[in-house]
């Protein structure tokens, strides 16, 4: 019997990181406050998970200004897109193996 979780990516184990990646996969980029509102987490919690994804090379960060306010925008890297698709495929295989 094969290990059903062998191909899952540990970085995406968190439901918050899963939510962040899902949002970024279907949008070209998303602002910090949009992610915070969408996923319903605190600033600190979101920042912590974004940092993990950034350090893994799965998302990229762009800081800028809108008027006088700073705005931080996130988007998926090619490596992040590939890793997330592989994670979803592994989840799908795991679910199918249980049928």
UniProtKB/TrEMBL annotation:
SUPFAM superfamilies: Winged helix' DNA-binding domain (SSF46785). Residues 16-95 form the Winged helix DNA-binding domain. One of its GO terms (biological process) is regulation of DNA-templated transcription. GO terms for molecular function: DNA binding. InterPro entries: ArsR-like_HTH, WH-like_DNA-bd_sf, WH_DNA-bd_dom, WH_DNA-bd_sf. It comes from the Bacteria. Pfam families: HTH_34. Keywords: DNA-binding. This is Winged helix DNA-binding protein. It comes from Dinghuibacter silviterrae.
